[in-house]
Amino acid sequence: MLFNAGALCLAGFGLAGCAGGREGAPNAASQSAQNAAARRDTAPPPSHAKPAAAPVPALRPGAKVAIVAPASAAPNASDLAAEWLEDRGFVPVVMPASRTRLDAPYEYLAGTDAQRLDDLHAAFAAPDIGAVWCLQGGFGSWRLLDKLDFALLRQHPKPFIGYSDITALHLAMQRHAGFVTFHGPMLAQDLVAGKREPTESHLLAMLGGQIGQGAWIQPPPDTRAVELVAGTASGRLVGGNLALIAALIGSRHEIDTRDAILFFEDVNEALPRVDRLLSQLAAAGKFDGLKGVIVGNFTRIIGTNLEDAQAQSLLYPLVIEQFAARGIPVLAGWPSGHGEPNLTLPLGARVTLDTGRAALRLDQAVTR
């Protein structure tokens, strides 16, 4: 079976989260449920200030899926990932570098830059490959950016899935390829590891086209999304891992946040470093013209002895300091990234953020 529809709580063409049929379940910092309902009816129409990324072909049952490792090595995980895909009705194609680990001092890489780049190009070029799925993150994706054949990618758009260090590839593809890519769970560190639902079902439904234009994406209520700055906003959804976003500032692959909804998350960061990363983006002008912000999972925050859900609230004052005075709506505690669950986000797609509803609306199709 392609996906577990029961885990998604789909209603008509919309995704209403997993709140047992409730719409817009309130969170601790939301206004009243009545006001949230009113905002749902008055959410702004999608903005058309900048062209949206093009939808990609949907992932069909029985399709071939390329397993790639553009960043760090996980050679023992390739076969487990292949089994996972087979169990869900897909045909895995294990690309060579995903079985490789280099010697020191480059032991963090899954094959040479040329090998990992060849895998990506071959996976996109092959007409019978239905999706390109990253095995894990780690380090090293940024080493491939200047040699990526974006013309080849534009000729063969297809779902590309990953997060964390894979953010470097997402940013470059959003800049130069022009199609939707998916900030979503990776085969080794999420799906084989059994990251909790609706991580898997939400991803497969989005890739398969069951979540489309007009759908509302809402986290499970126990994830405690928090409205830091109230409001609604529409724009292109951009972002990923905060450290990688900052690392590419000044390059030709840097993030374009104009008229956008910015999403960011991270892992193993200290609060002062998060403060510095946000300040770097502000100094680079990346918050000028920004429409809205979604703060994802921040896990294993250095220097705290708290559970992740409590520890990440410590960074909220840093976020409010950056965006409240600018009047930019902010929703925090969104469950995408290194925590659990890890909801898939379609980067490059036009969306509407409603902080009172604690939800995102897809304002375009992300697959076709």
Automatic annotation (TrEMBL):
Domain LD-carboxypeptidase N-terminal: 65-184
Keyword Metal-binding carried by entry: no
EC number from the UniProt entry: 3.4.16.-
GO molecular function: carboxypeptidase activity; serine-type peptidase activity
Keyword Secreted listed: no
InterPro entries given in the database record: Carboxypeptidase_A_C_sf, Class_I_gatase-like, LdcA_N, Peptidase_S66_N, Peptidase_S66C, S66_fam
Compositional bias ranges of the Low complexity kind: 24-37
Keyword tags: Carboxypeptidase, Hydrolase, Protease, Serine protease
Disordered: annotated segments: 24-54
Domain LD-carboxypeptidase C-terminal: 234-353
Gene Ontology BP terms: proteolysis
Active site: 164, 265, 338
The organism's place on the tree of life at top rank: Bacteria
Family affiliation: Belongs to the peptidase S66 family.
Protein name: Putative murein peptide carboxypeptidase
Species whose genome carries this gene: Achromobacter animicus
This protein's encoding gene: ykfA
